[in-house]
Amino acid sequence: MSQSFRVFWQPGCSSCLKAKEFLAEHGIAFDSVNVLADEGGLAALQALGAQSVPVVSQGNNFVFAQNLGDLADFVGVARIGGALSVAELVERIDRVLAVAQSHAGQLPLDVLNTKLPGRDRTYLDLGYHVFVIAEAFLVAANGGTLTFDLFERRPPGSIADGDQVASYGQTVRDAFREWWQSTDSGAILPDHLDTYYGAQSTPDLLERTAWHSAQHTRQLAEVLRNLNIVLDDELTNNDLRGLPLPNHVYDDEVSLAAETPND
Q: Which of 41, 109, 151, 252 holds its CA 20 to 30 A away from the CA of 181?
């Protein structure tokens, strides 16, 4: 009898949630291991030779689950091709970042240090993280390596409120447009980009950048709703159509509304 699958994850991780939902949607049973709450699970992850999540394992074999195609191959189901063109993905990313700027600017000062359930990540960190995702793509697109540490980066001291996060977001949007123009609107793209979970095609990494940043923007919107704040802007179904987003906004095992703002 083959060994069961295990999913190593942490709350608020978009790719972790998508990996769990992907397996469930394909009727594949798995053991759920929250590495932030289960020290034994973290040790088991490290014993595999992995240092980041999401990871899906079976016995001593594992796959980094950021790429859904790689996950599909690992569990033996058909791959699903990207639904959007590179140009469409670029447009979606810019739209997501614009909405994230709006949400960040609406974050009240007195809740910025509130931590997300199950995570050592604050509301301010969450807003900042949306733009780090796009900036990390640019690191790889410009010949560097997208590392896990890039995604773990926290706001510097110069970014202390939502408006400053939004301003940082504008610099990322500008840099993203400059990169796109440098490719002659996609006519010249590198075949593969280097990441901590392996070489990725430019379309694959763009798709993940789009839905990864969109998912965290959805979380930011939910934070504002939980604070009874009316959104100035919001991602629409058209903005999200064709992106392989998780069904849940935060997680299927941890509620985003589980904690109340700190005083």
A: 151
